[in-house]
Amino acid sequence: SKLTNLGHLEMTWRSRVHFHPLLVRILHKSRLRYYGKPEKKVDMPYQAYFEVADGSGMMSMVLWNSLCPKWYHSMKVGTVLLLAKYAIKTSYPFRTKATPGDSQMKRFATIEISLNVRDPPTEINIIPEEMVKPEWGLPEVKYRFITRSELDDLPHNYSCDVIGLVTFVGRAERARKREHSEDFWLYRWVHAIDGTSDQPFILELFATSQPDVFERIHPMTYLVCTQMRVIQGLTENPSRTVYLTTSNESQIFITGWHKGQPYTKDAKVKNFIQWTKSQSEVDQMKKTIIGGYYPFPRPPDSFVKY
């Protein structure tokens, strides 16, 4: 059938009601959001957003309501979609956005693709990777992996991806979303090493929409975290350590989940795997810790500094 592209959509969307099908690749994926309220009668008040791209650039795509439980887990980073009967809306301005791995990619920020169960009922097809043709011109998924030796020099709020060998996993903790709120965020502290520094990555991992992965993080697993944010300089303590926290677009992967993921082709991931092959498993296991209270950022050594 006749296809359109994202660049053409942005130029012509105001003058059309029906749009030609789109062929796009998912580059980023958000956590699943529940927006239900007692007074609103929506059967499945869920929403998830994705950044999708073709040869012309990148645009946000929003999955609504009952389409979320049906499609959310099938739509992975790297998945190619054929979309028909979708709607185009002006972009929601306050949404967080993933940082593209390819800084040269054009971003269409004025509009977004809206996938609904009706008005119009969207048709979604997942194209298997082996059937994707090079002539379609779909971009590859690119990452921003950093090593631990590079971390200290990065600015506050910098967006990056990391891979490491887990040496410490803290217990799951809760923090209130807002003061006096009944809603909590669930998170845990994790340390991971990559051989480039004496210091580990300190990771504040909030439970994303991957409970099966979040609950199974344990020492000696290979951990990949994407779209992490650098947190720098929060305390006056000179011994303070920089750490990384998850964003709305973060994805977490552990041993058993890596097969077929696009990041396995990344050079820094391959370097890390080479380093792990040179390590003694017994020596590393002696340094691992599970659970316990983990105060962070750490208080100063003495009351005088405090």
Automatic annotation (TrEMBL):
GO terms for molecular function: single-stranded DNA binding. It comes from the Eukaryota. InterPro entries: NA-bd_OB-fold, RADX. Pfam families: RADX (PF17659). PANTHER family: RPA-RELATED PROTEIN RADX. This is RADX protein. It comes from Cettia cetti. The lineage of its organism: Eukaryota, Metazoa, Chordata, Craniata, Vertebrata.
